[in-house]
Design goal:
Elements (H helix, E strand, L loop, with lengths): L1 E6 L4 H6 L6 E7 L4 E8 L4 H12 L4 H4 L11 H11 L3
Antiparallel strand pairs: 1-2, 2-3
Length: 91
């Protein structure tokens, strides 16, 4: 298992939401199967992130496929791309 974490406040949408916006996003992946197996989101406006992660987990969408589903910018869903970058070792 592999875990990727990202500060929601470090995204463009977090910056647009206001000064001092904080939260966290975390994905847990099965590195052998290249699938997401868990997700946690804490902070303002994270409901849409939960839905997207649920679809990816329940649908067993491969991480390499998710990588090509670029989230809108500058919405909070940008954090999903940052988590996938972290999971793939991209900075």
């Amino acid at each position: 298992m592999r875990t990727a974490r990202y500060d929601i406040g470090a995204t463009a949408a977090g910056a647009l939401a206001g000064k001092g916006v904080h939260g966290s996003a975390q994905l847990v992946s099965d590195a052998d199967r290249r699938l997401l197996v868990g997700a946690t989101f804490v902070g303002p406006g994270v409901g849409g992130l939960l839905h997207a992660a649920t679809i990816a987990i329940v649908g067993q969408v491969p991480i390499d496929t998710l990588w090509h589903a670029a989230p809108a910018f500058p919405t909070l869903s940008e954090v999903l791309l940052r988590l996938l970058e972290s999971e793939r070792g991209v900075s």
